[in-house]
Specification:
The chain is of the alpha/beta class. The protein folds into three domains: about 10-135 and about 270-345 and about 425-455, Rossmann fold (3-Layer(aba) Sandwich), CATH 3.40.50.300; about 135-265, Domain 2, N(10)-formyltetrahydrofolate synthetase, CATH 3.30.1510; about 470-555, Roll (Formyltetrahydrofolate synthetase, domain 3). Helix content is about 35%, strand content about 20%. The chain has 20 helices and 25 strands. Strands 1, 2, 3, 4, 5, 6, 14, 15, 16, 17, 18 and 19 form a twelve-stranded mixed sheet that branches. A four-stranded mixed sheet has the order 20-22-23-21. Helix 7 (about 135-160) runs antiparallel to helix 11, helix 13 runs parallel beside helix 15 (about 380-400) and helix 14 crosses helix 15. The longest helix has 25 residues, at about 135-160. The two termini are about 20 Å apart. It catalyses: (6S)-5,6,7,8-tetrahydrofolate + formate + ATP = (6R)-10-formyltetrahydrofolate + ADP + phosphate. Pathway: One-carbon metabolism; tetrahydrofolate interconversion. This is Formate--tetrahydrofolate ligase. Keywords: ATP-binding, Ligase, Nucleotide-binding, One-carbon metabolism. GO terms for molecular function: ATP binding; formate-tetrahydrofolate ligase activity.
């Protein structure tokens, strides 16, 4: 049944839906799982992916559906809502369907974005558990990451305090870490701008090594990136051992293996490697695994979750973070390359609200009422804004994938505005469906489900944007021109020197190119809406994630530690002291 989304808040809909949510033993029966493949965690469970993959290894993969979006407003345009609605719609059509989504970070949950559980009747449940730590994967990631920093800083202190003979007695060799070239920092799962730059080791000789350090948000950790791209536990262990924490005074990388901490880090991650099983509000299965941001990381749920989903379901839906220039580009050129999976269709989520913004509408600010242009009919703004939609359609088509545009419907949308989007989408060669999943759940997503089923019958001529043999700077230029629409790329002297060094080192030839860019514009400048013309992409640095095998060109002013706003969500979250229920999540 669909709940009255116009009157009930998301956490209230979730509370009602959760009353009949399948429990772990019911999922086992419903999905045909073996008893030892289900790992209960209260009313939810993890799935032992290696056992499931081994049992289903000879089963053909199902249809693979990716969900992305046009360039969003700061409010987001509902990719997870669309993913949940599509799964519910396919379920209404009698399909064996499931999804994989990312786990939300506590930073956005307690800030302005919310829980990322979807919304209305297109919702992932149980919502409270999803929003507040789930089965502990983020905690495992933070422990594993911060343990590496504990190992590094302790070693630096001991090497300062003891000579080589004393180190040898303690079975240690001198790593001689350069304190000005410590690449790794600490992580915390909040938007804590006060911790972006810190000094550690203040005090005496037994209080650590005094130096500059930093905090990033947990989802920016390389451990999170490794969880997203690892194929199995062995692969994860090997990748964790290659993480570069800093450089010695001769410029040689110092890794977690050098610190002899990689095994202990992997021990923290032994449970996190298994996806968590949740549900839509209409009780289709939803796998939750990994949660990297898309503008500062890979922005995908895990390859492991897709491996399971493609074996368990006839239609498997996976979501990419932010817009097609970021999330889809990384899905296309990184995740698909690493996994070997080829998608059948990509769903491009659009809202009339975002199209009006790209057409020249007033600034949209999270936490403030929308200007009246966004709640009254204005077909002209929509038509102008469709330039952004068409740009993203063309990006998806360059991959050889068939796009389906989903108009994520709001009650303020008019027939003429929706018709304008259909005309633009179809003229650009995409199917288009209007969906009311937020209001009506699966019944409101039948048109979208039918369009996706139809698109899955088309032939896919999948191809990557660039070959791995292409040098890093040429790859960045290709992404900037072909995906972002830039005229070219400019490099700071430091960034270009790093890029050249990476290109000349054969060890990095097969590393993925992981762009770091704002999600609020096709360009590096969040203020530039629509389809900016006549601009150059500035690259100011290149980071390396050696375990994940990423080279990360940094553009604009992106920070690995976002800030908390003046009106964060935590001001409205509380607990009912009579029932213990969490109130105010959205």
């Amino acid at each position: 049944m669909a709940y009255d989304a116009t009157k009930l808040k998301d956490f209230e809909i979730a509370e009602q839906a959760e009353k009949n949510m399948p429990l772990p033993y019911e999922w086992q029966e419903k999905l045909g799982l073996q008893k030892d493949e289900v790992i209960p965690y209260g009313r939810i469970c993890k799935l032992d992916f290696m056992k499931i993959i081994d049992r289903l290894k000879d089963k053909p993969d199902g249809k693979f559906i990716e969900v992305t979006a046009i360039t969003p407003t700061p409010l987001g345009e509902g990719k997870t809502t669309t993913s949940m609605g599509l799964v519910e719609g396919l379920g209404k059509r009698g399909m064996n369907v499931g999804a994989a989504i990312r786990q939300p970070s506590g930073g956005p949950t307690m800030n302005i974005k919310g829980t990322a559980a979807g919304g209305g009747n297109a919702l992932a449940i149980p919502m409270t558990e999803f929003s507040l730590g789930l089965t502990g994967d983020l905690n495992d990631i933070m422990n594993a990451h911060n343990l590496a920093m504990v190992a590094l800083t302790a070693r630096m202190q001991h090497e300062r305090n003891y000579d080589d003979a004393e180190l040898a007695k303690r079975n240690l060799r001198r790593l001689d870490v350069d304190p000005t070239r410590v690449e790794m920092g600490w992580i915390i799962d909040f938007c804590a701008q006060a911790m972006r730059n810190i000094i550690i080791g203040i005090g005496g000789r037994m209080d650590g090594f005094m130096m500059k350090s930093k905090f990033g948000i947990a989802v920016s950790s390389e451990i999170m990136a490794i969880l997203a791209v690892a194929h199995d536990l062995k692969d994860m262990r090997e990748r964790i051992g290659k993480i570069i924490v800093g450089y010695d005074k001769k410029g040689k990388p110092v890794t977690t293996s050098d610190l002899e901490v990689a095994g202990a880090m992997t021990a923290f991650m032994r449970n996190a490697i298994n996806p968590t099983l949740m549900s839509t509000a209409e009780y289709q299965p939803v796998l939750v695994h990994a949660g990297p941001f898309a503008n500062i990381a890979i922005g995908q749920s895990s390859i492991i979750a897709d491996r399971i989903g493609l074996k368990m379901f006839d239609y498997h839906v996976t979501e990419s973070g932010f817009a097609a220039d970021i999330g889809f580009e990384k899905f296309w050129n990184v995740k698909c390359r690493f996994s070997g999976h080829v998608p059948n269709v990509s769903v491009l989520t659009a809202t009339i609200r975002a199209l009006k913004m790209h057409g020249g509408g007033p600034k949209v600010v999270a936490g403030r009422p929308l200007p009246e242009e966004y709640v009254k009919e204005n077909v002209g703004l929509v038509e102008k804004g469709c330039e952004n939609l068409v740009h993203h359609i063309n990006t998806i088509r360059k991959a050889g994938i068939n796009p389906v545009v989903c108009i994520n419907s709001f009650h303020t949308d008019t027939k003429d505005e929706i018709a304008a989007v259909r005309r633009a989408a179809e003229a650009a060669g995409a199917r288009c469906a209007m969906s009311e999943h937020w209001l009506k759940g699966g019944d409101g997503a039948l048109e979208l489900a039918d369009a996706v089923i139809d698109a899955c019958k088309d032939e896919v001529n999948f191809k990557f944007l660039y070959p791995l043999e292409m040098p890093l700077r040429q790859r960045v230029d290709a992404i900037a021109r072909e995906v972002y629409g830039a005229d070219g790329v400019s490099w700071t002297a430091e960034a270009e020197a790093k890029a050249k060094a990476f290109e000349e080192n054969p060890e990095y030839k097969d590393f993925a190119t992981m762009m770091v860019k704002t999600h609020l514009s096709l360009s590096h400048d969040p203020a530039l809406k629509g389809v900016p013309k006549g601009w150059t992409l500035p690259v100011r640095d290149v980071l390396i994630f050696a375990g994940a095998k990423f080279l990360c060109p940094m553009t604009g002013s992106i920070s690995l530690m976002p800030g908390t706003s003046s009106d964060p969500a935590y001001r409205r979250i509380d607990v009912d002291t009579e029932t213990g229920k969490v109130l105010g999540l959205f």
